[in-house]
Request: fold
Amino acid sequence: QVQLVESGGGLVQAGGSLRLSCAASGRTFSDYYMGWFRQAPGLEREFVAAITWNAGNKYYQDSVKGRFTISRDYAKGTVDLQMNSLKPEDTAVYYCAARRVLSRSIPPSTGYGFWGQGTQVTVSS
Reply:
């Protein structure tokens, strides 16, 4: 089993920054995607960003390109999400997720089976 624990959420004004961190343990995959998703009240969960653990290939939702940066740290076993120029519409519970890479025919925005507990991000205007 893969266990994921998020941290770093909080309250910030529009235009500010936050850095989320996901600590992963129990990984046994040959390679895997580490992803960030978010969900606002009453809305569907949506993909934000992902990274392959081995090669560090990065993928982003269009609405966060140029503002968010995903990264991973082999030594610490963490995946981070640096969020800059935050907007009120970024307000949501942010979840860390993991899945096997398997086939490249399956996009990195879907197919995740392991999830963290979530961390709240609130952006005020």
